[in-house]
Amino acid sequence: MTSKCIHHHAANCVARLPVVAIVGRPNVGKSTLFNRIVGKRKAIVGDRPGVTVDRLESACRIGQRDVMLVDTGGIGEGTHDVMQPAIDTQVAAALEIADVILFVVDAQAGATPVDAVIADQLRRHQAPLLLIANKAEKPGSEIEFFSLGLGDPLAVSAAHGEGVRDFMAALEALIPPAHDENSSEAEENIVASVAVIGRPNVGKSTLINAWLKKQRMVVSDIAGTTRDAIDSTMAYREGVVRLVDTAGQRKHGRISDIIEFVARVKAVQAFRRADVAVMLLDGGEGVVEQDMRLMQLALDEGCALIVAVNKLDLLDDEQWRYYAERLDFRMRGMSDIPVFRITAKHGKGVKRLLDEAVKAAHRNSFEITTGALNRWLADAQQAQHPPSDHGAVVRLKYASQIGSRPPAIKIFCNRPKGLKTSYKRYLEQSFRNSFDLSGVPVRFSFSAGKNPYKS
Q1: From CA 388, how far away is CA 394, in angstroms rounded?
Q2: Which of the chain's termini has less CB crowding within 10 Å, N or C?
Q3: pLDDT tens track for 14-47
Q4: Cα(306)–Cα(423) distance, rounded to whole angstroms?
């Protein structure tokens, strides 16, 4: 099996990836360097400031080290007359999340006053960093960056690959090892790893405290390499549950753009260490776009998902019906996410919520025999035949499970490119319904290759 892990070892094969953050003023090649390191064209690259608009992060390997690479470009870039606040935000985000910082400068443009300001901010925090003189196709063009006082600048051409090998070796030497919890927790029977997510002030800490008061605490703090990430484990029936910390934000005062960026990166870190995410909503407030993005992010990262609406003591029956209708409308298209009602402050519904979270974690580790899987595939096709591909018959021949956490299914068929999106959605829904996988992000892939099990 591939994907995160197989269920019996899920919580014990957790590794917390160190974060490498890229900073620098606009148009110095941050996204090009990001793409060069990751090895894929994931960032949007252009020749004007502010073209990087997405918050990008990607797990990748630097030599023998696994890391999460984060491109901070796009935080405030491209706006009018706010260059310095945008730079401040970007640097603050990097300092908040990074174990290693890559400060990228433009060797063609030379050292600028903005570079000097960034260098001063980074120097005062003494964060481990590398100074990358990008676009250094001309020999010796990196020399003037010694004046920034950040050590030897590394001459690199991210676009052409020059100097990248030496740069990657220097970066690998700075990366702390990922924190592997196998050895320290092998004796613990961890039945599920649970992350509680949500916007500030929805009651995440209150919910976690309610759980910890009702269950005997076994291990109080499990520190990781990601800043501020402190997990806890607590007794649960014959085993323990790990509460994966999502590392709440500090108060930033003058910097507002940083909050959602940092929350996203830390949420990704938590999702990669969790079996299930509990999305906590405030019953006294509406459901906003940020809530939906966080839920989708959990599913994208392979977490099972359940929703808990908190502070229900603030809602009467009519208000709850209206809230539930709006929530159902906003969550349309998601994987039949279970919704529960709680009041964490008074401990109402919290025990059942924990039980349901553990069940969702087990669903996410679902495994099925090949025979049962192919019986389901035959029944699904019998119930609804695949639409033809321009008159040609589409046949789904065989299915095999290739991963768990989340379940991943590969289907061999004669015309995978002709399989319509609507039918793929039908298969996913049929699979969830047949095997009771509500809230689980099932992954389907389709191949025209020969059936390796035909014989």
Answers
A1: 6
A2: C
A3: 456 788 989 888 889 888 898 888 886 544 344 4
A4: 25
Return residue ranges of the chain for CATH 3.40.50.300.
18-174, 180-364
| 233: its two tokens | 């484990």
User: For the chain, where do the domains classified as CATH 3.30.300.20 start and end?
Assistant: 370-447
State the virtual CA torsion across 309, 312, 317, 319 in degrees, nearest 10: -70
Residue with tokens 């839920």: 295
Site of tokens 């035959």: 378
Q: Give buried/exposed letters for 268-278 (b at 16+ CB in 10 A, else e).
A: bbbbbbbbbbb
Given the structure tokens 């003023």, which residue do they identify? 25
Q: Which class is domain 370-447?
A: alpha beta
Burial class from Cβ neighbours inside 10 Å (0-12, 13-18, 19+) for residue 288 reads exposed
Q: Which amino acid is at 169?
A: A
Q: How far apart are CA 446 and CA 424, in angstroms?
A: 10
The pLDDT assigned to 188 comes to 63
Q: What is the mean pLDDT of the chain?
A: 79
Q: Does domain 18-174 have CATH number 3.40.50.300?
A: yes
The per-residue pLDDT for range 155-213, each reduced to its tens digit, is 999 999 899 999 999 999 998 876 554 444 444 688 999 999 888 778 888 898 889 87
pLDDT in tens, 369-388: 999 999 999 999 999 998 88
Which residue reads 């002709």 in tokens? 418
- Kindly report, residue by residue over 338-374, the tens digit of the pLDDT: 999 999 888 899 999 999 999 999 999 999 999 999 9
SS3 38: helix
Asked whether residue 97 carries a pLDDT value surpassing 90, the answer given is no
- Report angle CA 350, 354, 358 to the nearest 5 degrees: 170
Q: Name the amino acid, one letter, at 359.
A: K
State the sign of the Cα–Cα–Cα–Cα dihedral 365, 369, 374, 379: negative
**DSSP one-letter code for 147:** G
CATH of 180-364, one of 3.20.20.80, 3.40.50.300, 3.10.290.10, 2.130.10.10: 3.40.50.300
Q: Which of 297, 308, 299 is nearest to 261 (CA)?
A: 297
